[in-house]
Write a structure and sequence with these properties.
Elements lengths: L15 H8 L6 E2 L11 H7 L15 H15 L8 E4 L3 H14 L5 E5 L5 H8 L3 E5 L14 H6 E7 L11 H11 L2 E5 L22 E6 L12 E5 L1 H14 L5 H11 L3 H23 L12 E5 L5 H11 L2 E2 L1 E2 L10 E5 L4 H11 L2
Parallel strand pairs: 1-10, 3-4, 3-5, 5-6, 6-7
Antiparallel strand pairs: 2-8, 7-8, 9-12, 11-12
Helix pairs in contact: 1-11, 2-9, 3-9, 4-5, 10-12
């Protein structure tokens, strides 16, 4: 047997049993376990995908000029950030970038070996560190589920290649102080990687970006998967520190990473239209509020998140798996146990407000509201 790295079970495969239980109810299961969009692809995107010409030739690995300009225009409108298109790169969705960045950063600076990430967060931050042979060090969160920068040990900071921040946060919807994070990174010589894929679903205040506080030493990561219901198209983009962006652009050319040409064309259309995003915001806000009522009907009070489309539910008695089984058995709802997002979340479950209104209406009927 090979003694090297052995992949752990994929978290969301571990709840297949819950899915089977929930599916046995009349009307079937309502799967809220994964942030998998179910709403229509925007018409402007569907129209752009009908053009076959961009499929003919190799697409630019860094992103077409039109795509990078569309990202810059969108960032100006939506985030209040002025970007040079030259300091923007395309990626094949953001998960491949999230898991690949530690490896590329370590190649760039082999003297450091540590990735800092939120203690309750998207599991790919820690997995990316592990795949790169790095130390994955969890940073504690405060009572609002925001990073506690003061809790980072100086010895870990001295070894850190990067600090991940995620605002709005997955799974808890926290809103980090991105200015404080950028200042911490610069003072410690640590690159701040800011996952901002849910920025347009910020409920408390306006969308936030680390780039509002300067580009030196930071990289912002965005995606079309959630804002435009295009998870299957696999289009993401990154922007920030010009030296780091140039490094990533050049290395990724050698790796052969390219967003397919038709997807780049469709992304330009998606970024150029805000109406569909506003409609999606309304859908997610309405569904979150509805799911808060569903949880109240089963005896659990849940606060609305500061952003994102997840509910982070503190489980009575702390038995997350037991509560998840109860929801599957009694309500037909499939949720994710909080341990998927870190040991510090093991007494919570996460609900993704991605099911259509009719399916969430079925949950409401089942709990009698």
């Amino acid at each position: 047997m090979v003694a090297g790295f052995q992949p752990p079970p994929y978290p969301f495969d571990r709840i297949d049993g819950l899915r089977q239980v929930a599916a046995s109810l009349p009307g079937g299961s309502v799967d809220l376990s994964i942030g998998n969009p179910s709403d229509p692809v925007p018409e402007v995107v569907a129209a752009a995908l009908a053009d076959s010409d961009p499929a003919r030739t190799y697409p630019p690995s860094i992103g077409s000029a039109d795509l990078r300009r569309a990202v810059a225009d969108w960032a100006d409108r939506s985030l209040g950030v002025g970007l040079d298109p030259a300091a923007i790169g395309a990626c094949i969705g953001t998960k491949e970038l999230v898991t690949g960045l530690p490896h590329l950063l370590r190649l760039r600076d082999p003297k450091r070996d540590t990735i800092l990430y939120p203690a309750v967060s998207y599991p790919s931050y820690a997995m990316g560190a592990e795949l790169a042979g790095c130390r994955a060090v969890a940073v504690p969160l405060d009572a609002q589920w925001c990073l506690d920068l003061s809790a980072i040990d100086e010895s870990d900071a001295a070894r850190a290649l990067a600090l991940w921040v995620n605002t709005p946060g997955n799974p808890a919807g926290g809103l980090d102080d991105l200015e404080a994070a950028s200042l911490w990174g610069r003072s410690h010589g640590v690159t701040v990687l800011s996952d901002e894929c849910y920025a347009e679903f910020t409920w408390q205040g306006s969308p936030r970006s680390v780039l509002r506080h300067g580009s030196d030493g930071v990289l912002a990561v965005h995606s079309l998967s959630k804002r435009s219901n295009l998870a299957g198209l696999r289009v993401g983009y990154y922007a920030g520190d010009p030296d780091l962006v140039t490094y990533l652009q050049e290395v990724r050319k050698h790796q052969g990473f390219m967003v397919p040409g038709p997807a780049q064309t469709a992304a330009v259309a998606a970024l150029s239209d805000q109406d569909h995003v506003d409609m999606q915001r309304d859908r997610y806000r309405r569904r979150l509020e509805s799911l808060v009522e569903v949880m109240a009907a089963v005896g659990v009070d849940v606060p609305m998140p500061g952003g994102g489309f997840y509910l982070w539910v503190s489980v009575p008695g702390g038995d997350a798996w037991g509560f998840a089984r109860r929801l599957a058995d009694e309500v037909g709802m499939v949720v994710s146990p909080g341990e998927f997002f870190g040991d510090a979340g093991s007494d919570h479950v996460r609900l993704a407000a991605v099911a259509g209104d009719e399916r969430i209406g079925l949950l409401r009927d089942r709990v009698g509201i």
